[in-house]
């Protein structure tokens, strides 16, 4: 568990030979998170025995995301395990990069001709894209996929109250323009004149391009196991355009109606995956240590990838400073890195796994 830390305090100490003086406590030690490799490996072994197949975990915290570095981390695991007949992939993520999802599916397919996705919980956005690359998707009672419509944070995006660029989605822009046209009058026939005062034209163009890219990525991923290209395109368009919310939860029955190859996850397997998720959640809990209201240290574990005898994870190790005039936290000293734990015989080796 994360150790309890206290903020730095100032204490007054009365001296016998002079006036009271101030003594400042040393900054608190940064909280440490548990790395539960031995416990997670026991569950991985139990799942492989039940499935009679190679089992892999791909898990991200709410602050982590599907990213390009995950491809390198996953390759390290697959290279250690070697080619397999079938891979069962435990997927839990709120999403990230769609292009990284395409590369992950390609990598998994390179090592195994058959891919099964196990989804006990959230499998959103780019994680849904990864699931689309599986021959079968097994979903638990709490599982859901989502739409994969594109939202984009651009250098020219509008900023929020914390002076951070906000994401702009294709669906939002389309709805604004459609609403304007339905209520247009002679004095304001062109919606883009007003829209461009709030959203830069280059952002509008970038979002439209990203939306087209998202449809192409989904179609390419589905084509790894779906021979009917037209059906793959139909499913891709539906997931990109037919939902009013990016976070709309697509549960098992609706996924069937879309045309995806889904089925219920067996109860005993779902139970083991939820146990594994609890261990990953303990590893990936928030880990901020505040020395004062303007300085903090972050040790959160964001992404965890695991296979038999090997685990690769990304951990923050960074100081943060709050810039009052900019109303935002910025990183200062940063030693964040990927870490690798590998079991060889009876010994466990830990190392920094360098990805640039």
Describe this structure as you would to a colleague:
There is one protein chain. With 356 residues, the chain is an alpha+beta fold. It has two domains: 37-146 and 249-353, 2-enoyl-CoA Hydratase, Chain A, domain 1 (Alpha-Beta Complex); 149-222 and 235-245, no CATH class. Helix content is 36%, strand content 25%. The chain has helices at 37-51, 68-81, 98-111, 126-132, 170-182, 191-195, 201-222, 229-241, 252-258, 267-283; strands at residues 10-13, 21-24, 54-60, 86-92, 114-119, 136-139, 151-152, 168-169, 262-264, 288-292, 295-298, 301-307, 310-315, 318-323, 328-334, 337-344, 347-353. The strands form four sheets. The chain has a nine-stranded mixed beta sheet with strand order 9-6-5-4-3-12-13-16-17, with helices on both faces. Strands 10-11-14-15 form a four-stranded antiparallel beta sheet, with no helix packed on it. A two-stranded antiparallel sheet has the order 1-2. Strand 4, helix 3 and strand 5 (114-119) form a beta-alpha-beta unit. Helix 3 packs parallel to helix 4 (126-132). The longest helix has 22 residues, at 201-222. It is globular and about 75 Å long.
What is the element layout, followed by pairings?
Elements: E1 10-13, E2 21-24, H1 37-51, E3 54-60, H2 68-81, E4 86-92, H3 98-111, E5 114-119, H4 126-132, E6 136-139, E7 151-152, E8 168-169, H5 170-182, H6 191-195, H7 201-222, H8 229-241, H9 252-258, E9 262-264, H10 267-283, E10 288-292, E11 295-298, E12 301-307, E13 310-315, E14 318-323, E15 328-334, E16 337-344, E17 347-353
Parallel strand pairs: 3-4, 4-5, 5-6, 6-9
Antiparallel strand pairs: 1-2, 3-12, 7-8, 10-11, 11-14, 12-13, 13-16, 14-15, 16-17
Helix pairs in contact: 1-10, 2-3, 3-4, 3-7, 7-8
